[in-house]
Amino acid sequence: MSVMNETIQGLGLVPVVVLNDAKDAVPLAKALCDGGLPVAEVTFRTDAAEESIRQIAQAFPKMLVGAGTVLTIDQVDRAVAAGAKFIVAPGFDPEIVDYCISKDIPVYPGVVTPSELAQAVKRGLKVVKFFPAEAYGGVSTIKALAAPYPMVKFMPTGGVNLKNLKNYLECDKIAACGGSWMVKGDLIKAGAFDEICKLTADAVALAKEIRG
Ligand code: 3PG
Description:
By secondary structure, the chain is an alpha/beta fold. It has a single domain (about 5-205), classed as Alpha-Beta Barrel (TIM Barrel). It has ten helices and eight strands. The longest helix is centred in the last third of the chain and has 19 residues, at about 195-210. It starts with a helix and ends with a helix. The site of 3-phosphoglyceric acid has 12 residues, from strand 8.
């Protein structure tokens, strides 16, 4: 397993962040770090993503900041130039995956079917995103997919929260769980970074309890 995959698996949780205003980036990153989770997937669903990644990477060089919802090669380039250390995509786009592999950029494309997983395995990926996790059957689907593909681990996101986290993290086929439950948009908008820090610490404590 690559260093990046090991780090993500060690953390066990990847907050999926939507930032509408780059001014929130550093306080958000600080709340995550203070809560014990120095990792963030900043999604390219907003125009503020690139600048947010840049500010987080500058303020917290050791933090694992990555880009999510990456849909184009141009976004890969912009994210990496801004300081993103990994790329996450909601689906399996061979062009994006091959581009990242050719540039040695850790990439986590979304898969939900054996056919998509076959494409990921063929390219040597060891960890893939499983999205949208709850809608596609959650842990039971992951276990079924892992049977013929034991060399792959999954990063489920989409509907993962504090209530079902235990069920996911107990499965040894899961590298880490992604989600927005500790970094909800309304909390960011309200500047409730203490609450974000608390929700993060709760998630980290639960992950430690489950995984030891
Ligand atoms: C993602 O982009 O990975 C998901 O939208 C996060 O899903 P959640 O908001 O249900 O946690």
